Amino acid sequence: MVNNMREVVVAGIGLTKWGVHPDKECYDLGSEAILSALDDAEMEWKDIQAAFCGSVYQGTGSGHQAIKEVALTGIPIVNVENACSSGGSAFRLAYQMVATGLHDVVLAIGMEKMPKGPIPSTAFRPWELASGFNVQMANYANETVEYMEETGATVEDFALVTVKNRKNGAENPNARFQKPVTVEDVLNSRMAASPLRLFHCCPLADGAGAMILCSTNNVKSPKRAVTVASTVLISGLYGEGSLGGGVSTSLKHTPKRGITQLSAKQAFEEAGYGPGDIQVLQAYDTMAPAELWDIEKLGFCKTGDAPKLIREGHFNIGGKLPVNTDGGLMSRGHPLGATGVGQLCELVTQLRGEAGTRQVKGAKIGMAHAMGAGPNSSVTILKK
Amino acid sequence: MGNDAKKQVRLRDDFWTPDVKGEKPKLLGSKCEACGEYFFPKKEKNWCVYCQTKALTDVTLGREGKLVSYSVVMQQPGGGFYKGPVPYAYGQVDLPEGIRIVTLFEVDNFDDLKVGKDVELVISKLCDNEDNNEVLTFKFRPIN
């Protein structure tokens, strides 16, 4: 906790099923998650004093549309677009309102219904779009090639990430994919952007998550409340390599720590914890290899050690550091603006001990990390 | 129409040097005279994003670099903005000025792409546009 801020807890969470919802609009998904979070927190809408709603492609006032399906009471509603860190960014704003004492009970939402047809991503310049540089699988594939050169990791190692996460997803009734896969399934899936195959990449999904944050004296069910130990957002550092965004990468001014390393360092410092304290981790597995370098960059092991550790089962439920216990993006799917909230809802479920067959025994402290185009890196540590 | 060659247009006018017979094209960039940082493409504003001063000048960049990473894209990118052939390859090249740029690769065979290979600048066709003109862009190809 930062100096004299108030303690903030998560009092309630609500999730929709992740998947393709052709019969539902984004506001249907968002309002479903809000109602479920109110139930979970044992609160009424009149308790909510402000709302922050993360989404990416939902257009003007999307949070208002979702909340309109629940109630309209004049509270401030702010829409947050921060690419795939939108949900995490909305959560952080809700946290700040309660921590500073401006509000006592605040709602954070993440929601997405993937639009059909061309999406002119503003994360790429027009000439980059015309050059075909807006293929996220290929941009990750380039990073993967660099990672393989640096560490000797193999496509088989990356397949193990998919296998682990799909196994976890099979235990999560909300996941888009609930069927386990084998290493052979991954390596026999079609090439998407070399060296990444289709099953190395997460699927998209529609869905929504909502979380109610409040001060300790506003909690209705203290036993189930989970405390926010820290929540950090770092948006872009000069010289850190990225494909797209119109800026060439400086080789002379590479930052000592990239945005992931820096956001984790700040989150640990603010929480007063280190990597050894984290018992469950929701890492950013938009592509299978990214989970491995994410674990390394967050400070859980040295560069190049994660492939060895995944081979040893270190990141399984029951292993030393269970990662992506709900199946991660790989099974849950990636509803862009909702992903950060989805990860945090899984942490809350784990820390409450309510995760059923995928429960990490005795988990009391957890971390979630979501990257986003921009770039953004959002890290949150929760504790019971 | 007959056998007239198609009109050629550039994807962006200021990506590389004007055509001069007998001269090889070079990429155009910006250099900060205060801190020495280079940028590609050329910055439109006279403003160095690294040291935050107004000291940029136009420069040409080295024609050869090193291949850092590549990926062969097997499907049409989303959005319909890219009108070139599929599959196609793009990735990163380090230039001697100390910058890493993203570029398309020109190869007869994708197996010719290898990390660490020396590559050189070529100006090559990206696609035909709606006016049936040939759109040219910069690419890099391995030096054998």
How would you describe this protein?
The complex is a heterodimer of chains A (384) and B (144). With 384 residues, chain A is an alpha/beta fold. Chain A has a domain at 8-112: Peroxisomal Thiolase, Chain A, domain 1 (3-Layer(aba) Sandwich). Chain A is built from 12 helices and 12 strands. Chain A has helices spanning 26-41, 62-68, 86-99, 126-130, 136-151, 155-169, 183-188, 259-271, 288-297, 306-311, 328-332, 339-352; strands at residues 8-15, 50-54, 77-80, 105-112, 191-193, 196-197, 207-215, 226-234, 249-250, 280-282, 365-372, 376-383. In chain A, strands 3-2-4-7-1-8-12-11-10 form a 9-stranded mixed sheet, sandwiched between helices. In chain A, strand 2 (50-54), helix 2 and strand 3 (77-80) form a beta-alpha-beta unit. The radius of gyration of chain A is 19 Å and the shape is globular. In chain A, 59% of the residues are buried. The model of chain A has no long low-confidence stretch (mean pLDDT 95). With 144 residues, chain B is mostly beta strands. Chain B has a domain at 63-142: OB fold (Dihydrolipoamide Acetyltransferase, E2P) (Beta Barrel), CATH 2.40.50. Chain B is built from no helices and 9 strands. Chain B has strands at 8-10, 28-32, 38-39, 56-60, 64-73, 88-95, 99-105, 118-128, 134-142. In chain B, the strands form 2 sheets. Chain B has a 5-stranded mixed barrel with strand order 5-6-7-9-8. A 3-stranded antiparallel sheet of chain B has the order 3-2-4, with no helix packed on it. In chain B, a hairpin with a 5-residue loop joins strand 8 (118-128) and strand 9. The model of chain B has no long low-confidence stretch (mean pLDDT 94).
